[in-house]
Amino acid sequence: MRIVHLAAEFAPLAKAGGLGEVILGLPREQARISGEVEIILPKYDFIDLNKLENLKIEVPDFKCLEYANAMWSGRSEGCSVHLLEARHPAGYFHRGKIYGCEDDIARFLYFSRAALEYLKVKKEPIDILHLHDWHVSICAALVKDLFKELKVKAIVLSIHNVEYQGKCDISDLDAIGLKGAAYLSKDKLQDDNPKFPKSINLLKGGIVYADAIVPVSPSYAQEILTPEYGFNLNQTLRKHQAKIKGIINGIDQKIWDPSHDAVLIPSYSVESAIGGKQANREALAKKFPLAVKKRPWLGAVTRLVPQKGPELLEAALEKTLELGGAFLLLGSSPMPTIQEQFDKLKEKYKGNPQVLLHYEYNEAVAHLIYAALDFLIVPSHFEPCGLTQLIAMRYGTIPIVRATGGLKDTVFDCEDSKVPVNQRNGFTFPEATAYSMNQTLERAFKLFRTEVPIFQSMIRRGMEADFSWKKPAQEYLRLYHRLLG
Ligand code: ADP
User: Fold this and answer.
1) What CATH number was assigned to the domain covering residues 258-464?
2) Which of 16, 274, 385, 480 could covalently link to 406 via disulfide, CB atoms 3.0 to 4.6 Å apart?
3) What is the C-alpha separation between 3 and 74, in angstroms, rounded?
4) Which of 162, 254, 263, 303 is the pocket-test mutation for ligand 1 (most atoms within 8 Å of CB)?
5) Model pLDDT for residues 302-357, shown as the tens digit of each residue
6) Which CATH superfamily is domain 3-250+470-484 in?
């Protein structure tokens, strides 16, 4: 079976968040089970090419519209990785970053068409063309309407976050050779928000044209059918409900392995978790001035965007201090107003040895924080899957999460009598409000202080759980086989 993934991220080379990690773990596991898997992504200027084996220019010169491109191919993590070098005069992938450019729409539309031009040159039949998020959603329409000679048996669209849809004008489609106006209709790519009747919605195009749609958890697959979580695409999703199947993400158990983690001082296993976590707290406390003795340590590793409940993270900080714990946050915001709010918070708690507010994207610090924490808080308003709660459990850190989307599918409250005791692995709260969250923080702190054996058995349960890609990759393969008949 030839599987080709198209995405904007691939963790070893280009990662901005959860998507990049998925486009490492899923293809790698698929390659292990079923042989050859390919990934196509843009050749961003910041990619460290030394991370690829056998890198060579595979197709030196092929056209997309009137512009030249080259395809570089190499191997990484058992997969074939193709880096599309776009020699477009706008220097689309020479911006030092993956997202956040004014012309992101044009950049990814061009990438989408150029990737298909490459596949056309290759002339090899494709069983599954697997698209990820709005950035490459247009490929579904392109394959069915413009690249009919491409032998693609089935198209799968994974939705990692329905909030990001890629809204644009018909002229943006014109620019990549589609007749934009022809797609401005309700049953095609016209935006479902009645306020923007002239807008094209790229993610909607993927939903309409793909053969299967995979939201990244079963609960999220249900939630996005409702107005509250569907970001105006709920009706289109309902219409195409028969194509939807929620599949939970895994985590990369090699990258996230506390027993072989070069960043940790020291690494630790289930047996040595209590001492190992304490030693890492001490290491972190030396790196950043923190009071090691004040416990529990509660924290978050997150993008600071409205979805993640930044106002609730602030409330969690205050509640943690009130309850006598320490609070650690690693994360920054692409939104200036939110970043300003957190800058003020940093000023307010300057010099407080119970607070660490660290605003950067730093993988090494993330590893250390996951190891050092007692609790990870994830107070999301919505969460398609969420990886941080899974990583936390692997590091023996108890998750406290808002029960939504993938959080609801992976974290089970330690006091929930409907769940078998051996599956209870954390704390959940129903509403994204400070009231609901704070009640749960009180429960968690109480358990930490008064029920040490229960707390330790939860640490063990989390560390021993299988959050790998094994099961999800099998589910994707079953879906592929069903599509291929
Ligand atoms: P999302 O993809 O919505 O940002 P996920 O929970 O799915 O959220 O994935 C987040 C990933 O990004 C995790 O691997 C997390 O460790 C990582 N991450 C988030 N913020 C930071 C940061 N500031 N520094 C390092 N890693 C981060």
Assistant:
1) 3.40.50.2000
2) 385
3) 16
4) 303
5) 999 999 999 999 999 999 999 999 999 999 899 999 999 999 999 999 999 999 99
6) Glycogen Phosphorylase B; (3.40.50.2000)
